[in-house]
Each structure stands twice: as structure tokens, then as C-alpha cells.
């Protein structure tokens, strides 16, 4: 019962965050945001990635550490019902295809089945694997209050920065931020 209550609260917070992005940015700002607010946030730099299980495209549980494999990892939290998230997905897909940067994963916060998330990505012609956090344990563990939220982890598994809100991940300012992956 408590887990259901926490999931409902997390969903409400993430939904509210997605909805309040009236003025999304197409490029990340070099200015730091208030922790928990939209924009670039370095306040949690150095924190290790949470040891929370997510499901891969086949519905099997895995961890961010297993996915990263000791390399930099860009983790995007998104949902099918979040318009800025959906708008951002093709730029994440292009970044992943480009190579040379951190590994890119998009973790759906939808409570539906992995098949529905996979079908949604296929419909949108996004080639990213359909990772899912249907219980929102990852977003809760990260304290993410806005969707989309994207976190860069270094090869040491520690947070470098996070960006809350929509970003064009193929843009020059995003490339500048991504060079901080180590």
C-alpha cells in the first residue's frame, strides 16, 4: 500500500513538472538552475548513480551500472504522455546514433507494459531501447521532479550534471555539456 501511495505521489510530481514547462529551451543554458527546477543543475555532482532496478526492452531487470559498464552514461527520464519528452526523443536518438559520446538511454516513467513503450518508440521511429521504470523508483531515487530530466554520469558512476526540461541533444551547447563526460 505504501509503495502504491509513493508511486502516486511521484506520478503527480512528475506530471506537474512536465506541465509547467511552458517555456522550454531548445539549447541547455550554461547558467545553473535552482535544484529541482528546470535547467542545468550541478548541485548533485559527485553522487553515485542509484542502485535501482529498471527493466530493459525485454522486461528483464537491470541496473544503470550494468548498462554503463564503466563508461559515461546519459540517462533520460521521459514518458509517453509528456509532450516535451516526446519532442526531445529524436534528438536523443540522433545523439546515440552519432557515437563518440556517452552511452544514451531513455527510461520511460510510464506505468504501462514494456510492449506498449516499445510500440510507442517504434511508432515515433526512435531506435532507443525501451527501458522502463514503471514504479518510478529511479525518478524518486534521483529526486527528479520534472520530465524530461537527463542526468550525465561519468565512467566512475558519479553524477556530473543533470538537466531538467527539453533539450536539443544535437545542438552546440548540448555538445559542450556532453564533453564533460569522463
What is the element layout, followed by pairings?
Elements: H1 2-19, E1 39-41, E2 53-55, E3 61-63, H2 64-68, E4 73-78, H3 83-98, E5 103-108, H4 114-123, E6 131-132, H5 137-142, E7 149-153, E8 159-164, H6 172-178
Parallel strand pairs: 4-5, 5-6
Antiparallel strand pairs: 1-8, 2-3, 4-7, 7-8
Explain this structure.
The protein is an alpha/beta fold. The protein has one domain: Glutaredoxin (3-Layer(aba) Sandwich). 34% of the residues lie in helices and 19% in strands. It contains six helices and eight strands. It has a six-stranded mixed sheet. A two-stranded antiparallel ribbon has the order 2-3. Keywords: Cytochrome c-type biogenesis, Redox-active center, Signal. Pfam families: Redoxin. This is TlpA disulfide reductase family protein. It comes from Sphingomonas humi.
In a nutshell, what does this entry contain?
With 182 residues, this protein is α/β, with parallel strands linked by helices. The protein contains six helices and eight strands. Residues 22-51 are annotated as: Disordered.
So how many helices?
A: 6
Helix content: 25-40%
CATH A-level architecture: 3-Layer(aba) Sandwich
Class computed from helices, strands and strand pairing? alpha/beta
Write down the CATH topology: Glutaredoxin
Amino acid at each position: 500500500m505504501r509503495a502504491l501511495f509513493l508511486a502516486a505521489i511521484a506520478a503527480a510530481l512528475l506530471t506537474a513538472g512536465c506541465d509547467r514547462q511552458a517555456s522550454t529551451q531548445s539549447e541547455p543554458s550554461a547558467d545553473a538552475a535552482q535544484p529541482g527546477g528546470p535547467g542545468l543543475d550541478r548541485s548533485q555532482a559527485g553522487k553515485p548513480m542509484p542502485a535501482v532496478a529498471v527493466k530493459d526492452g525485454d522486461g528483464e531487470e537491470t541496473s544503470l551500472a550494468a548498462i554503463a559498464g564503466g563508461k559515461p552514461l546519459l540517462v533520460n527520464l521521459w514518458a509517453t504522455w509528456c509532450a516535451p519528452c516526446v519532442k526531445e526523443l529524436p534528438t536523443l536518438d540522433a545523439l546515440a546514433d552519432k557515437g563518440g559520446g556517452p552511452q544514451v538511454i531513455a527510461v520511460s516513467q510510464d506505468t504501462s507494459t514494456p510492449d506498449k513503450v516499445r510500440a510507442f518508440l517504434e511508432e515515433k521511429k526512435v531506435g532507443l531501447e525501451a527501458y522502463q521504470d514503471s514504479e518510478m523508483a529511479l525518478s524518486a531515487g534521483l529526486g527528479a521532479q520534472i520530465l524530461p530530466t537527463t542526468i550525465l554520469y561519468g565512467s566512475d558512476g558519479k553524477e556530473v550534471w543533470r538537466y531538467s526540461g527539453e533539450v536539443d541533444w544535437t545542438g552546440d551547447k548540448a555538445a559542450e555539456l556532453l564533453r564533460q563526460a569522463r
